[in-house]
Amino acid sequence: MSLDMEVISFISEEEGKFLLKLARKSIEYYLTYRSILPIDERDIPFDNLKRKGASFVTIETKYGNLRGCIGSIIPYRPLYEDVVHNAVSAAVSDPRFPPLTLEELPNVKIKVSVLTYPKPLIYKDWKDLLEKLKPFEDGVIIKYKNHSATFLPDVWEEIPEKELFLSHLCLKAGLPPDFWKTGLLEVYTYKTIRFSE
Question: Which residue spans traverse the membrane (predicted)?
């Protein structure tokens, strides 16, 4: 298996710091030149970051309020590339917020979460689903027909109750809040390795 076909499974502290700098540089470059930061694979000092990886980039105000968050669930491009594109999207393409400005950039905090590959969560009924979920550990993806949504593990900090967590996730997917009780949802879980400025 060649390097570019391998999926990332571990990120060191040093690699995480590099990704945070890369995310900030990508946003600054885009806000200045309105184009994606041109980056050569040879400029990436860690081979690990050239493996396929999925990431979420989160932007917060200095008061800890969300200012943008965009990511990939399934790894399909080198991790460093994924972070570059998701950083720019979180800054200017999150439909919940106006685009970030260059003036705001020094006052925001950037977080990068690297995701493990999602695994199906097999459950018998809604009680079993609640039983199997691990708050503060699991990122959760739900799917039903053409509806889908995910919450990163960080969301447990805001919504620690499992029932509420699933209800909010259903609403995010455009489903009724108690749809998780129907047994019709496909559920997948993943873990994240988080880095923060």
Answer: none
The CATH label, of 3.30.1300.10, 3.40.50.150, 3.30.450.40, 3.30.700.20, for the domain at 3-115 is 3.30.700.20
pLDDT digits (tens, 9 = 90+) for 19-55: 999 999 999 999 999 999 999 999 999 999 999 999 9
* E strand segments, 17-86: 54-61, 66-71
- CA distance from start to end of the chain: 34
Assign 111 to helix, strand or coil: strand
The yes/no answer on whether domain 119-191 falls in CATH 3.30.1490.150 is: yes
Q: How many CB atoms lie within 10 A of CB 104?
A: 15
Strand partners of residue 186: 143
